[in-house]
Specification:
The protein is of the alpha+beta class. The protein has a four-stranded mixed β-sheet. Helix 1 runs antiparallel to helix 4.
């Protein structure tokens, strides 16, 4: 249990220190837009206020960015009439924690 907590703590610290790379964020947003049920439909992109300038000029014409202080840095939520796509470091850490919980710890030698 302690090993799992240590791994999660270290990864969370690493993710927090990496920062937000504009091109990487724009690429993740483009991949998420590709998941929308209808690629031609308009979508609202909610981002942390500090991340909005990072994607200016890099979004598809049908995607409109708005600042949302409830979204963590590096994360986003895309909302269209038929689909919601969410991504970001907090979700990655949740998935990692779930994966770690599924892996049994081997008995001591």
């Amino acid at each position: 249990g302690q090993l799992r907590q240590t791994v999660l703590h270290l990864v969370a610290k690493l993710v927090g220190e990496v920062g937000v790379a504009p091109d990487v964020l724009a690429g993740r947003i483009k991949a998420a837009v590709d998941m929308l049920a209808d690629a031609a439909e308009s979508a609202l992109l909610r981002l942390h206020p500090d991340d909005v300038p990072l994607v200016e000029g890099k979004l598809p014409a049908t995607v409109f960015a708005v600042a949302d202080p409830h979204v963590s840095r590096g994360g986003f939520v895309i909302e269209s009439a038929s689909t919601i796509v969410e991504d970001g470091p907090a979700l990655w850490l949740e998935e990692l924690a779930a994966a770690i919980e599924r892996v049994p710890i081997p008995p001591p030698c």
